Amino acid sequence: MYRPLAIAITAALVSSAATAADAPDYSLTVYSAAQPGQLSTANLANYGANLPGYALIRDARRMVLQPGVGELRFSDVAKRIDPTTVAFESLSDPAGTRVMEQNYQYDLVDNAKLLDRYIGQTISVTQVHGDKSEQVSGKLLSASGGLILQRDTGEVLTLGNYSNIQFPALPGGLISKPTLVWKVASKNGGAQDTRVSYQTQGVTWWSDYNVTMREQGGNCSMDLAAWVTLVNQSGGSYPNAQLKLVAGEVNRAPSAAPQAAGIMMKAARAEMDAASAGFSESTLSEYHLYTLGRRTDLPDNSTKQLELFPAVHDVACRKQLVFTAAPQPWNYWWSGPIQDQGYAATNQGSVGSYLEFDNKEANRLGMPLPAGRVRVNQANQSDGALEFVGEDVIKHTPRNETLRIKLGNAFDIVGERKQTGFHIDTSAKTIDESFEISVRNRKKEAATVIVREYLYRWSNWEITAKNHAFNKRDAQTVDFPLDLPADSEGKITYTVHYTW
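Below the sequence we write its predicted structure tokens.
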């Protein structure tokens, strides 16, 4: 539905292009390039055009067009608009209405520009002396470091302090809002539904996830809530707007943005009450589109939080402790094997605490999760109050994937790793290396620790001896599960054989 809006028209050309329009019907699609945790919420006001994101604005209005060619001034645009992306179209008469020329005027009025334009012209300045004020008029000679006026008598005054300046009129070329000026040709004229589309900087969004974790009897469950934070510093306000969010890495050419009119987006709206409808998810090319099922206001210089989806309860999860002392291989394809016997021969390790859960329908989830920060809380045993136990960030995660959140490092589990044997045969092109990994559990209860070993010397390897079974995690990683009773120590020993 289109509602009439007032638009300023000039008669500089043969005939006017439009005579009236109604309130805008806004639709926004917001794209984000923000990395999880990248933006400081305490300093959002300082980002402006540097916000890592942008928005596609669609502004639908009903206008009454006169037949012929005329000039249309359209000032309801964001200050951070990309004018190369603007598209004006008549939805009622697309074949008979077109824009012949477009100019973008952004020389906005301010005190300095007004004073500069009035050099050599007469202005009036108000000075305050105690409880009295005096009006001083004269030709403005200079506005640098104060005002210099010349009266009609030739007397020259310097004014360092003043309370008000009166200018006879707004100089030509200065405007109060960024303005698009179109030369419009309308064959048929009359009342038409129109739409203006453009891209603007200064808009972004990101996701935040809140997890409440529960552990009991070796079982783990959690509740998951998701929120969207939406920031608008575009220099434009969008009341009662339709809102869509795009999750995914959309490529943009460095020299010019794609034309807004060529982007067509469709999303199924949830069949919910309009006052409470949340986001519905659908695919858009290789990305995911989240459409808010109700309209919302997005004022300029505002930060808004919206529920991404209703909280999900009793999601099955896994708590995992991982001991790591081996260096991760920085490159799987070296120029040659690492033959230095002392490389990572002895290391103190750390035990990372992780929370894992499956993003599957069978686990009450099964939805694409946009990149964001995940904060985990857990009830303490003394009074049941929720306490913060760690946070991590996730990338854009499709359905049916496993998410792994690092909570921190375990306090009561320690260990070390030391080399116990090393033999290299360069003629046979082999290395045999042995390790002993000691892990101590100082908790008052039993714990299962995954001892994670990275096989970093070369890509071809085989474990030829071991005292515990292991699981091959990937091409360079093996996991040894180690069950440790309360206040006990466990050891892993193994030998790896490299060939090249």
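The radius of gyration is 33 Å.
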